[in-house]
Design brief:
The protein has about 120 residues and is an alpha+beta fold. It has a domain at about 35-110. The chain is built from 5 helices and 3 strands.
Length: about 120
């Protein structure tokens, strides 16, 4: 951006051309769950472990809706109308509407699970 400004004859601090300024690059692994992984987790019998079952009930709908934890953890039945989830995002303030397709996946699990901040007990 600074280079572009300089080309357009906008006065900029030329220190950006120094070797001290560089774009850091770091290799990282992309770890994710695909649809088959989520389906397998959804169908896995966790009835013998209520802690894992609760964690799964929080995790899967969060993935299906794509909401941030801060938004997903606030969901109530009031956010669901006309087969749509509508919520005002905490981080951005933007309004999000999630279609019926994702809502059906959400309803396969029990009712909307409540959670205490960042703890599952």
């Amino acid at each position: 951006m600074l280079r572009e400004a300089k080309i357009n004859r906008i006065k900029v601090c030329e220190a950006f051309e120094s070797n001290y300024f560089f774009k850091p690059h770091e290799e990282s692994d992309n770890i994710y769950l695909n649809a088959a992984d989520l389906k397998a987790l959804e169908e896995f019998d966790l009835s013998g472990n209520t802690r894992l079952e609760r964690a799964c009930d929080l995790f899967l709908p969060g993935n299906y809706t794509g909401l941030r934890f801060s938004d997903y953890s606030r969901l109530t039945s009031e956010h669901i109308q006309d087969n749509l989830i509508t919520i005002q995002q905490t981080k951005t303030g933007g309004r999000v509407v999630i279609p019926e397709k994702q809502l059906l996946k959400l309803r396969k699990r029990a009712a909307l699970p409540s959670c205490r901040k960042h703890q599952i007990r």
